[in-house]
Amino acid sequence: MKNTLLVIAALAIVSCKQQIVSDVQTAPTQIGVNAVVTENGDLNVTNAVEEVTFKTDEASQIHAAYLSLKGALVNTDPYEAAEIASNFKSTLESQTESDIAKGLNDDLALISVSKDAAEQRVAFENISKKVEVYLSNEITSGTIYKQYCPMAFEGKGAYWLSNSKEIRNPYYGDKMLKCGVVDKEIQ
Fold first, then answer.
1. Which of 74, 96, 126, 160 is the most buried (most CB within 10 A)?
2. Torsion sign over Cα 48, 22, 34, 29
3. Are 137 and 97 in contact (CB under 8 A)?
4. 52 or 6: which leads in pLDDT
5. Do the Cβ atoms of 52 and 63 come closer than 8 Å?
């Protein structure tokens, strides 16, 4: 009887192992809590993206650059975040003397010289607040999702903007990718 149970247990383990190997070969890689890496390794990818249009080219560029910066932080890539922030800052300086450009300058400069994702995320929180105020008055169609993670910054909480209802947390990246809620829809 013991031998029969051992044989059945061994077969079950081998069968499960083969299924796991098969699933790993066909399924996205899991990292952290509910994190899914796509084929290109980008944690920021979602199933549905909201198209948004703005009154000005400046607003469109700020929105696109902001989303790129958010994506780098979701992926916890401080080098990419630094490069995006540097390009974002240069673009703003070369194209406009607006209040938004001046308001973002210091935070973008900090991100562009830092290689520490934690420092970059603090500056990103400030950028998110300023970009929200600016873009709220510039939307002509579509929706921007203001999202919130109550656990960010040791329970203080923090907001960010997204082009998708699906949560991709820039404050925790792969550690808690889907931690957060949609707080507001800006139209």
1. 160
2. negative
3. no
4. 52
5. yes
SS3 105: helix
Q: Supply the pLDDT for residue 36.
A: 45
Q: What is the mean pLDDT of residues 149-155?
A: 94
Contacts of 59 (CB under 8 A, 6+ apart): 134, 135, 138
pTM attached to this predicted model:
0.77
3-state class (DSSP) for residue 185: strand
Do β-strands 144-149 and 181-186 pair in parallel, antiparallel, or remain unpaired?
antiparallel
Maximum C-alpha span of the chain: 83
Specify which residues 160 forms β-bridges with.
Answer: 147
149 strand-pairing partners: 158
53 forms bridges with which residues in the sheet? 141
Assigned token pair, 123: 């500056």
CA distance 156 to 167: 18
Let me know: does 174 contact 126? Beta carbons within 8 Å.
no
DSSP 120-143: HHHHHHHHHHHHHHHHHTTEEES-
pLDDT, residue 47, reads: 79
